[in-house]
């Protein structure tokens, strides 16, 4: 058998050449893999750092939101309270006057009532005062009784007590007497 016909494992000239080439190829592959691993580890570290920063930001936002809600609960009525202070001052001033005529007392009460109405208006506290003949609204009115009337059924006959809304929410419904309709 000649050297050319021998298998490659038994030919020393091919073994040496292919072994050196294979070692260089493995070294190149190993270097490439190490570089890719280092790049992947650097990218993973960068993403981990971003994750930690994002978590910290989210926690800070959550804490700030909790603080804002706590402050809103604590100081939510501050504007309304500021509007009522002059009303209290006026009532105290009226009581401090020793010799008042009924006319001056009435004028003072009317002025104080205007201050109170203004405070309600500024703070969006609105009256519910249905007029006779208005349709009964169970969302804003509370029927105390139903009476026979010349008015159509389920209409307000009389308002016994005004109700109040804060913006669109019923604070207290108006107390009303409702028509039961005409009796024959």
UniProtKB/TrEMBL annotation:
It is found in: Cytoplasm. It comes from the Bacteria. PROSITE patterns: GRPE. Keywords: Chaperone, Coiled coil, Cytoplasm, Stress response. GO terms for cellular component: cytosol. GO terms for biological process: protein folding. Its main location: cytoplasm. Residues 1-22 are annotated as: Disordered. Residues 23-68 form a coiled coil. SUPFAM superfamilies: Coiled-coil domain of nucleotide exchange factor GrpE (SSF58014), Head domain of nucleotide exchange factor GrpE (SSF51064). The keyword Coiled coil applies. The keyword Cell wall biogenesis/degradation does not apply. InterPro entries: GrpE, GrpE_CC, GrpE_head. GO terms for molecular function: adenyl-nucleotide exchange factor activity; protein homodimerization activity; protein-folding chaperone binding; unfolded protein binding. HAMAP family: GrpE. Homodimer. Belongs to the GrpE family. Participates actively in the response to hyperosmotic and heat shock by preventing the aggregation of stress-denatured proteins, in association with DnaK and GrpE. It is the nucleotide exchange factor for DnaK and may function as a thermosensor. Unfolded proteins bind initially to DnaJ; upon interaction with the DnaJ-bound protein, DnaK hydrolyzes its bound ATP, resulting in the formation of a stable complex. GrpE releases ADP from DnaK; ATP binding to DnaK triggers the release of the substrate protein, thus completing the reaction cycle. This is Protein GrpE.
């Amino acid at each position: 058998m000649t050297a050319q016909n021998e298998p490659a494992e038994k030919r020393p000239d091919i073994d040496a050449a292919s072994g050196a080439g294979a070692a260089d190829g493995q070294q190149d592959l190993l270097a490439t893999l190490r570089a890719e691993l280092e790049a992947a580890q650097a990218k993973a570290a960068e993403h981990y750092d971003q994750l930690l920063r994002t978590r910290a930001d989210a926690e800070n936002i959550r804490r700030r939101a909790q603080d804002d809600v706590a402050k809103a609960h604590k100081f939510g009525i501050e504007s309304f309270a500021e509007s009522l202070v002059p009303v209290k001052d006026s009532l105290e001033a009226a009581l401090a006057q020793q010799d008042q005529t009924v006319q001056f007392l009435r004028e003072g009460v009317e002025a104080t009532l205007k201050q109170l109405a203004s405070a309600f208006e500024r703070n969006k506290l609105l009256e519910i005062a249905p007029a006779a003949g208005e349709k009964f609204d169970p969302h804003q009115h509370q029927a105390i009784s139903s009476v026979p009337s010349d008015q159509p059924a389920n209409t307000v006959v009389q308002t016994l007590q005004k109700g109040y809304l804060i913006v669109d929410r019923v604070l207290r419904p108006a107390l009303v007497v409702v028509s039961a309709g005409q009796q024959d």
